[in-house]
């Protein structure tokens, strides 16, 4: 295999200046991970950005709310950006927009109508007024040197776009998130004909969604979910609760249609569900028969077989309505034996335990729970291997760069490109920060810029870093033991017995009883050695307590000595 | 549906004394969860226990090493136990044995040869010498009033047994973990004929493994893994590393056979792999051709296409050999482009992120990674729905009690029992601690004993409880801010500026700069109010700092004030 693909070593060098007439591509997020998609294109000293999303944290990032793309590489060049193009309205593509706008409030944001409506709602929450520029599939417009053409693509949210970017360096096609449902609910097909036309013209670089590249075959049509929902809801003679993603308009449409068919009114539960479906209905992307929707309060007064709830919480989020129901803690809805709950959603990797926790809670209360593990109530929004082959054969690209995926997905996608005839040395597997230059029709890795994790925790961005997270991991595993000592600053003599307390260490109130005498002994030792420096005294105490707790308990709490000179 | 099955409310009352001639069944672990299986049978004031396993902790139990069954219900009756029967040697069935032996070192432990060999090795590590009594399939022996008959069952470890327990109250059959591979590698079939014979005699209560009850159909034979491994390893022309469970002797046997076929020597990697395969070879359960095994050091000197590693770490355990390889940190083995890694194992729910982290690390280094997601390199050890129907139809039980499962599995298993003709009111869905009495041929829930989580953390058992875990969760999410103040005990006046420090709160050294003046202001306030009680001063400080951090950062670190009277 070529050095480009499998060397196992990626460059650490800052790239050389971009060659004249070349196009530079750098992902600040979204390659080597699933989430926080953001790709920067550079030509002639100007920048175009595609997508600006967030990533949700994993176990090793405790307390973090969101992870942003790393803007450092463009911070000093923020006024060189001609536009931000958004392919669709999912959080992993638009979630970081407000944070980028803090750096440049007037950044032109380009996207389809629904995408921009979601961005506008998000920005409103951040009290920002973005500069929005609506585009449609089939449209071609230039921002600076970047001549962009937009193509309809099918995904798990309406109004998604792929973007072709023409510069003198060549033609680049970026799929965004994509699949090839041949019978989409809204009739809006992925524009394979358009892609073929681009292929005829010659696509120099093809950036391709890798999420499902490991999955063989094809996704069945979204349309096939409807009859399954119909069957389940027809059999229900009590309450029905359907949980799904709050942006999946077509899924909700099918639920509404089934509700109408079976004489049920519908209550929307969850802030994002209410907000997004309101937007979708306003834009005529969701058809809601008059009188179908009722408020939660109204729904609670109706006969149980005449109501249906559409709720968020399909990922087992602990504060969601569905989780509260599963714990028997929801203010309005208490699950009763015979109720039906449908999780019409995937399980995002990492959420399995939380989702099954919710399922078990609901089942324990007697609900009949239908989920993708026992019925066909979800289809993926991403093209698996069979559909990706169609894309490669339509586009016939000169160079390929898999995006949107962990390493296993990127490699699988690269292998598909090679199978369709793309030469191995023209398939560039990068990761976040890797610099790819398209020069003279060939894409090559030329260096690397630093891309780290930027954490949002509460109101502030970036002050929680690896050191704080590593402390949190230690504290979360073993708690801490604090030892507070007041010493005479002249002699180093302890002014009182040390105050010992532990949190997250033991439920046993006597667990640390032995520490007092241990510390006192150490203090008389430091005093006798003439040690008065509080920092050194603290070091001694930390060492002796750490050793004691390792020997006695074989645990590693954080040891926190505080020595106060009085 | 009957009250027995779906009331959604389980009793909280202590059960009445067991009726004369009745048999009582209480699970101290393993029902409502997967793991720490332990079921207590009581007849005529005497006890028999089946299995004594551990559960591995989830995210909500940070720092915990193991979770034990709750022994409280039998602690005072420890000398009334006639025997502990172990169905097989997996950790979730034997892992808590050393902890039970601490309460009663001479407890008779009954099991098959391989099971007892694993128990003996485990007890040796705990410096215990258990009283072991070997039994074989087909054998029938009584311990006290409990007349036990053992049946061969097929599972993902050799030498597994089901146990039939006869008392004057009736005949109970407990499957242990079970599946119905009709072409097992060792030819040792689940004894369906024996189960049918019991069915003829009349099984009053059938306790059935629920793990795969939600999965339709049948498990393919373990035997079908061999050819898949053969195909992958035949194509490999560099190093091959196979990771699997350290107790899966038949899986390892197939790997060894393939290694022989392709002229590769084998190095075992990982302490438990080396130990268990040594035991299996000694007991002639594993056939190892002479000269096949080499040490890791030898393996490193051999040509790469003549060696194969069998390793632990298939669950992504961060300290395992495989995880180290994926991070490029293994002392001996560095993964190179073109190496082959096979994860011949399932993903235990909750481990998905860790396992895929390892896969991505290996793929990034250029390895070809084969796992159950892209090849048939694993089959489950538990009977899915189709096989469970065979069991119900062979046994034709009067009463059924699903065991070994979360709520979703228990309900699915119960539904299968009903489909085969067991009356709904004879299917008892219990959970840990629920007391089921078999009286006059009918099993009924009669009460509940308290069963909590018993945590092992380091050397001690039980001192880490819910309060410690809840502190760890707070600390792990937000860290802490400590405020140390020395006050004049007579006046409550601060003797020095407060010492403020945060851990796990922020990487920004100035993040807490404003806290000093905030606390000083509060202290002058408490002093002016004449407050000298250190506890009350601490309360004031905690409140004011907590409010500040919520307003400023929208975070919730633990606030830890220490007020020292001087």
UniProtKB/TrEMBL annotation, chains A, B:
It is found in: Cytoplasm. It comes from the Bacteria. Binds 2 Zn(2+) ions per subunit. It is not clear if Zn(2+) or Mg(2+) is physiologically important. Binds 1 Ca(2+) cation per subunit. Seen in 1 crystal structure, it is not clear if it is physiologically important. GO terms for cellular component: cytoplasm. Ca(2+) binds at residues 63, 65, 457. Keywords: Calcium, Cytoplasm, Endonuclease, Exonuclease, Hydrolase, Metal-binding, Nuclease, RNA-binding, rRNA processing, Zinc. GO terms for biological process: rRNA processing. InterPro entries: Metallo-B-lactamas, RibonucZ/Hydroxyglut_hydro, RMMBL, RNase_J, RNase_J_2, RNase_J_b_CASP, RNase_J_bac, RNase_J_C. The active site is at residues 209, 382. Its EC number is 3.1.-.-. Residues 35-229 form the Metallo-beta-lactamase domain. GO terms for molecular function: 5'-3' RNA exonuclease activity; RNA binding; RNA endonuclease activity; zinc ion binding. Zn(2+) binds at residues 88, 90, 92-93, 155, 177, 404. The keyword Ion transport does not apply. Its cofactor is Zn(2+); Ca(2+). It holds the Pfam family RNase_J_b_CASP. Substrate binds at residues 246-248, 378-382. Homodimer, may be a subunit of the RNA degradosome. An RNase that has 5'-3' exonuclease and possibly endonuclease activity. Involved in maturation of rRNA and in some organisms also mRNA maturation and/or decay. Belongs to the metallo-beta-lactamase superfamily. RNA-metabolizing metallo-beta-lactamase-like family. Bacterial RNase J subfamily. This is Ribonuclease J. It comes from Actinokineospora alba.
